[in-house]
Prior knowledge:
Elements: H1 2-6, E1 15-17, E2 20-22, E3 30-32, E4 39-41, H2 51-63, E5 80-82, E6 89-93, E7 98-102, H3 103-106, E8 116-118, H4 119-133, H5 143-149, E9 150-155, E10 161-165
Amino acid sequence: xxxxxxxxxxxxxxxxxxxxxxxxxxxxxxxxxxxxxxxxxxxxxxxxxxxxxxxxxxxxxxxxxxxxxxxxxxxxxxxxxxxxxxxxxxxxxxxxxxxxxxxxxxxxxxxxxxxxxxxxxxxxxxxxxxxxxxxxxxxxxxxxxxxxxxxxxxxxxxxxxxxxxxxx
Length: 168
């Protein structure tokens, strides 16, 4: 129910018609219509929230942050990708370290390069990269800061990173 409310474009003033259609006049079952086939009338009525807020919520939903068994989420969840295959990097744990690995390589689905980076090293690299780019220096990352500033972090084969910043 809440997901339906958060994804509903009606709240930004758009009218959306023909979301589903009947299979036939004999069969009374409905099928969902593809998004590109919907009839959308922009700015049809007074909006409840701004377009910017709606897009920000969609960005949060798109990240689909996973929570671990301790009810905690990882700071980089949804933000780290492999440059070779564009797959997400998944978190792995060994006895001593927490590290990220290319999910495509781990599942043996096409990425031949073993992309792994320890979490503490990745955090240091991201802080260094951000401090090199901005006048305001930081010493510790938090999820809100990453959400406001970074669109995606790419891990290269040589272990270096490339940060794609959000446009202002």
